[in-house]
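Example complex used in Figure S2.
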Amino acid sequence: TGTKKWWKNAVVYQIYPRSFCDSNGDGIGDLPGIISKLNYLKNLGVDVIWLSPVYPSPGYDNGYDISDYKGINPEFGTMEDMERLISRAKRLGIKIIMDLVINHTSDEHEWFKNALAGDPKYRNYYFFSDTPNNWGSFFGNKTWTKTENGDYYMHLFSEKQPDLNWQNPDVYDEITDVMRFWLDKGIAGFRCDVINIIYKNSIKNGRRRLILTGREHYLNTEGCHELLKRFNKDVWSKYKTFIVGETIFVTPNEAKLLCDEDRGELDAIFFFEHMDVDSRGGIKWFKKQYKPNKLIKIIDKWQNALEFPANYLENHDQIRSVNHFGNTKEYWEKSAKLLCGLNLSLKGIPFIYEGEEIGMTNGDFIGLRDIKDIESYNVNQAMKRLLLTHKLRRKLILRTSRDNARTPIQWDSSENAGFTTGTPWLRVNENKSFINVEAEQEDEYSILNFYKQMIEFRKNSKAITEGVYRRVAAPNDVYIFTREAKEERLYIYCNLSSSNRHVEFYGDRIIFGNYHAYDRDNFYLKPYEFRIVASNI
Ligand code: TEU
Ligand code: CA
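Predicted assembly (537 residues):
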């Protein structure tokens, strides 16, 4: 359908620069560190890098609070480093998409400073009011902060992230100019941060809710769809871009309006429903038991809903997938490979988060002092106000904090896992002793080598890159689906449980899997077994 887009067969790898690789010993990952690992990524089979923000920022939300959209945070390097990264990656056939955070800026951005100084032009870039509304925030803190002038400004995230007023045409001009600035440097597109909440219809009070009072005024508004159509018409369509939107709280129907091809808005979207499969009442800090059957139902629903979903099982905001949906004990290796196989067999574009390819797990934090994330800090404050004990807050936060996915990448088993020669900004997990790139490169049966083989398999399979998706069956905790193109039909088996599961046998010959011996007669899947079976059409 439509012109074959270069990104349709791509495998995307997300880099959270702060935690990827430090080249100058200050304990913070940086651009030269990323450049030093481009061959590693090429070797893995990566086509596109999604680079989390590297713009100047006070780092309150680790770069998702931008103070200059056209610069590079000196902590990560220089503009020359960025240009070198783009050109070196290009030479290796790797494209880069950058993180576009345009729902809000940092409160240290020039625009906000001018607004605080009373400049009316810049005050209208944001939301100021003498009387705050009753809206809730994403980080559990207040949504309005008082200025020295006695009025208030609105921020759906932290108080250092004031929301931009997208009803203001000046904001449109500023940000589309930013987009062109980076696209002209050879960037291949953007991952758009919380893109479906940027247009607020009004800042009137909302209906009181448990989660995000006021969201009816800004979630998936018509104004947002109009902006996306204009971004596409005025900017993105003039370059061969790939645009993926981070869209929170979307239903399949709302998501279709954001990314179906004929809409002329986004190319793909990240939905969240599977991330919240074990969230009690939609709040990830209060977990309920994870049930594989529920995960299967959710993934199947989204596979049927969207023409081209963005598939992911973890990112810099979520806990590690092997903790979330796999097993970190006796089935650590098997379950990490199963999750790889599942993610890379689905219809759509697969995203791999840095460290996922070696089976990195949640952090091994000792106490709340080890946690750096502003979201965790604010949630801890909110829990204190709710009189939760330290012991309970420690448990709830350590197991869910976004820092679980932000521990330094484990390149080898040396003191700081080869991430830095200095003091790492966040605690390195002790399991770097056996979970690290170097060890896994040497082990033919490692998770890393399974990722390489699965990415290679996927690239050579028309059924997976272009085929039709159809769920075949979902016996208890097992997900069986087909991917079918003209010349190839594959049956994909995923046993998402830690026990043997008898299943109906379909297909003719096993061509890929995460176990080596198969029990031919009484057919069953072993714990966390992943299996691809080809069928003669
Ligand atoms: O995240 C959007 C968001 O709502 C996150 O807070 C996420 O949903 C939650 O932490 C876990 O479910 C984006 C960025 O990915 C995140 O890193 C930023 O903190 C946030 O926006 C503000 O820019
Ligand atoms: Ca550094």
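The longest strand covers residues 478-485. The chain has three domains: 10-103+169-363+407-456, 366-400, 465-535.
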